[in-house]
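== Protein entry: sequence and backbone fold ==
=== Local backbone shapes as whole numbers ===
==== Amino acids and backbone structure tokens ====
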Amino acid sequence: MDWKAEINRMRKEKNAIIMAHYYQTGDVQDIADYVGDSLALAQWAAKTTADIIVLCGVHFMGETAKILSPDKKVLIPDRNAGCSLADSCPAGEFEKFVKAHPGYQVISYVNTTAAVKALTDVVVTSTNVRKIVDSFPKEARLIFGPDRNLGNYINSITGRQMLLWDGACHVHEQFSAEKIVALKKEYPDAEVIAHPECKQPVLTIADFIGSTAALLRYTDESPKTQFIVTTESGIIHKMRRQNPQKLFIPAPPNDSTCACNECNFMRLNTMEKLYKCLRDEKPEISVDPEIRERAVQPILRMLELS
């Protein structure tokens, strides 16, 4: 079957839009109406006039879209497309942590469930986290969750002492500083660019640190022609499309059998599943109305501050 033709036909018939994260496979990115990071996906979900949103990403992204557009039908090609970082922060345990620290305001990374967002004062993404943290008074007592690596990085560049939830992304945890150093010897002219979810030893050797959108923009604007890309390797598809004359080398994880680092959850979404998702209008994302009512406020605050 010509998946692309069928998907194009159905999205017109159903007034549907397809949104894809940069970590999706190249064919899914290419057919999407919008491709972006978590912030961009949230912004598009908040203002779309489509009847159906198909979110090619992971489950929390679909939840965020549903929270922002409760009147829309939000679909995800594979319901099992979860997130190790979101899973590292169960809402019940996080609520106990927050209650154990009265007087603290809560900043939650967008990579969390709707139930965790409902416990939050403001949501952030890796694109806007520093700007939003800086919007709080210096004396403010802050909890940051769930990514300890991102939280440590923001503490280090802002001088804050945010209390950190002990969570992490399994993809960004796996990058090997030693292997990146060895790769740098192979490509001495290459710059190391890294996502702030990486561990501190990796960030220490990076020439540039930024969100997926910032990494993409940096490779566009940099006069350099070689880059060791230290984030989920799906972003390299867009980098190569925009700069085919440049060399993008995926940074290796600790696993010696792998040459790149992929999110197994992101890769669950395929063209066939996208086709079936549009055809059957399922799996559909739902969010409890009470949780949605509490979770939408910190997301809207993020969008206002962004």
About this structure: Residues 46 and 68 are 5 Å apart (CA to CA).
